[in-house]
């Protein structure tokens, strides 16, 4: 028994309440080491020295990654106060395990693990509706133009490929007009990327948080969208951009105008005064300067600077200062022997993260979203005035307009204190409001129950891409990565996280799948049958393609002649199967087969008498499979495969099924014999 690998703590994701008298506990051990794990527990304040604990449970091994096995169980006790220890058995030796460590024969009861009291405020409550939802992400400008009369920007033709600054005229009226389409597909929740007043098509640089962007509609249109969606049983969540604002935001403009005398100077992270004004172009200007510099043979730096400013016809002082510094840097590098013809804006932008001299030239003198994004200065949420302003925004759109929650942009760069206050305000406005953060990595610090309900599950997405879409990992690695999420996140957070296959920030799933629709379909089938709330990026159901931004933000295909109706029906069928089976939404997950040779991945989902066996064959060869129902803990004589409606009879306690290459079977235990 490798004792160094064994781990448990009576808090965090290893011990937490799941009901007013029920405690979830988890224990970690070396992979393949322990055969059995039991927990002994009882009331904290009873006489432990003279009485053995009255309750014993065996923990279930429910997940394994490349190093560890994870065991879990739910302990129930009406007194709400738990004191417990473990008995570990590796088949050859047994030992007790408590907070004091390991003991061969006798437990020192003073060292028992303790969960002192289940307090009602310690529950991790997530909105009930999220667990049953199928989300649909909409990038408003690219979905549907329902009211051309409000378009003021010059519009790109709907069928043209998007550029960084393209506007297509999609709006809230267009979403209203397509609600029947979404309802027919089976969508029950919409996530809208930002809809507030901004100057770009993506609207992540917000000018006014209290106004709908005029290009999208107005407050009345917004309320109509919420109302009509709710009538169809569809929830609507907004994108909350609370990490940064636009440089046109009133507070930042006041700083630009008044400098150190601005009452908003502590709203942002400023490196000094005066605050540099945004050049008319940043990265684009870098490439132009390099081009002009290569065309000139003037030996004088001053002459070069004046010449390039004249050639670029620059008028604003901020543009001139930008070019002066850039030319000086490039000339110095050329004098050191660097071939500047091989440089471009992207390379210099990355170099500036390590070269302070260059950063001072091409970056602003204030912190921003990402690196040096002049138009998106970063907010200082540690400032009480900033928090008060943003929390009022969060409350207003829920209470006054009726949105059903917030997706939080760049959530991992905003302080935890703010998110705790944010949750309090949002849940007071509507206890069933949903809070989901954008975190691309391990999101455990935000999922303790006091900040987010869930996250955009990019750990899920990247695992699915690598297994189904790219076929670059085998089933063992696939399960190792999924198992980490299942053991890192508390079960309420897993159920309330958005399982996405792509988004406005990634290539589309079909493109990631190299245009192979079979791979795409398998990824969707897994998304609809696995733990968590599925999220569809608009148009994926029609087999839309697209690479990285802005290509992934193409306009929605409404011409039925160009739509992939087979893919649409695949999505619609899987959504219906998910809706018809509560086990796929909130049921237990148990991995039952993981075959690396044949790339077979099979699991059960169970909720009371709703029991399903889901089998993925991610290889090109057919697989003849047999499952023992006793091992599945299913007592039934007939299964129905839900995608084909084919019946499978149980014989001698076993079910046999052939799953074709690159295919899936969703078998439901038939309880209506």
Give a structural overview.
- Belongs to the glycosyl hydrolase 13 family.
- This is Glycosidase.
- The chain has 673 residues and is of the alpha+beta class.
- It has four domains: 3-122, Immunoglobulins (Immunoglobulin-like), CATH 2.60.40.10; 128-243 and 381-580, TIM Barrel; 279-362, no CATH class; 582-670, Golgi alpha-mannosidase II (Immunoglobulin-like).
- It has an eight-stranded parallel beta sheet with strand order 18-17-16-15-12-11-20-19. Strands 3, 4, 7, 8, 9 and 10 form a six-stranded antiparallel beta sheet that branches.
- The longest helix has 19 residues, at 317-335.
- The protein is globular.
- The two termini are 47 Å apart.
- The mean pLDDT is 95.
Short description:
Belongs to the glycosyl hydrolase 13 family. By secondary structure, the chain is α+β, with helices and mostly antiparallel strands.
Q: Which sheet architecture does the biggest sheet show?
A: 8 strands, parallel
β-sheet strand percentage:
15-25%
Name the structural class: alpha+beta
Strand segment count: 28
Strand order of the largest sheet: 18-17-16-15-12-11-20-19
Radius of gyration from CA coordinates: 29 Å
User: Within the CATH hierarchy, at the fold level, what is the topology of the largest domain?
Assistant: TIM Barrel
CATH class of the largest domain: Alpha Beta
**Low-pLDDT residue intervals, each spanning 5 or more residues:** none
Mean pLDDT: 95
CATH superfamily of the largest domain: Glycosidases
Distance between the termini: 47 Å
Family: Belongs to the glycosyl hydrolase 13 family.
Domain Glycosyl hydrolase family 13 catalytic: 137-578
GO biological process, one term: carbohydrate metabolic process
Keywords: Glycosidase, Hydrolase
